[in-house]
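Session log. Operator J.P. requested a structure for one protein chain; no other inputs attached. Running the standard single-chain path with token output.
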Amino acid sequence: MRWLLFRVLIVSPLIVGSTGAFGLGWWWAMIPALLLNCLYWYRYNSKLSISDFSKEIRALVIGFIYYFGIFSIILIVNRYNFYQISIYYPFLIIPYNLSTIAAGGFMFYHNLGWMFIGTFWSSIIGMLIYQLKIHKLPKLNNRRIGALIILVLVSLLPFYQHFATDLRFTQDYGMSSELSLRQYRPFMKNKQLAQLGSPAKLRITQHYPRLNGATALYPVYSAAAQAVYSGMNTKQAKKIIRVDTTPKAFNSLIHKKSDISFMAQPSPVQMKAAKKSHVHLKMTKLGTEAFVFFVNKKNPVNSLTISQIQSIYQRKTIFWSNVGGNFSPIQAFQRAEGSGSQTAMEQQVMKGKKLVKPLRYQSTDGMGFLIDEVAGYNNHSNAIGYSFRFYATQMKQNKKIKVIKVNGVAPTAANIRNGKYPLVGSFYAITRDHPSQNSQRLIDWLTTNQGQKLIDRTGYVGIK
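Structure written below.
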């Protein structure tokens, strides 16, 4: 038995592990090594003329439990996060030599389960071929049939492991997050910025308020600056009229690096940060915008209820077929914490119900360092994502996605204005509690008929 365990725990892994990174990266690269392992067990049985291989089966099961069992337990403990498997784990599978090095050095863990299972079954097949040759195939009784069924079912576990992983992680970076904001820069004679058609009734010629805000609102405050700021050139505009993500724009206001921040309702965390910094905020509502959900254009689902969306993002509804779509698992994408979209999702849609942890993008860079961040929407056939209407349909036009109805209502400007669309939020001009005179003048102008006209022409829905 001792030498059998040596062959199971050492020799077979040495044979199969010779595929190295190729076997862990591409499953088909394991096939030659598995065939070689099959041949090894055939010749071993042939050389010793083994007619009863029950001891070999027991030894192989022990090896299978050691390699695949420990791997599965570690994967469960790490919530199916292959990249969280300790870098020390490969020392437990050191006989897999080159593959062990690849796993430890480059974190190629995804196909390890299949490698262990392939080692086990290729050994079994090698022995069975010899038994078939000598016409002494083992007879199947109820006990053996039961054991065989259990082994087969356990061997299918990697399918579930990868399914559980795909619900939580992706190695697809998703659609490009690059957005050309140059087309919305003020004082550059571009045609994308909304125009009043007549001179603004407010003119600011000096002490220009420093503006910043969410990316989605850049066209609004950029157009306002172009209409109101007089005597400014593009070089000045680049310094005074900035655009950042919502968290960065909010922080710039808190730390006095901007005078006005244009964004949606700040999150509770952001409000807490302002309070901690002893900053009192003044918020002026400028307009409204729809919060929308979108899917791949080929997805047959055209409408979801709010309760269905909540269920999807709590991972209670896992398959599209449960909401009228195809039988495929739902990849529900979220946004980074603190972003305007994520805050809207938490406050308007979930309404106190807890979101599951966001799908994360995981990969390794050229130096072998782990990249781990909130995954961007990839528009796969089973994907769903969310954003604000103007950003999703105008700023990042993508003909391969479609915006779906919520509670049967489409997010049109008319439905936003009349209140029929259920997910409508406000956006604000936010300042510290004592804004400068020109900052207040600009905000007041944006609430006038002329300022509201500019907001409407940009593509948002004003408050008037």
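Operator note: The first strand starts at residue 169 and ends at 170.
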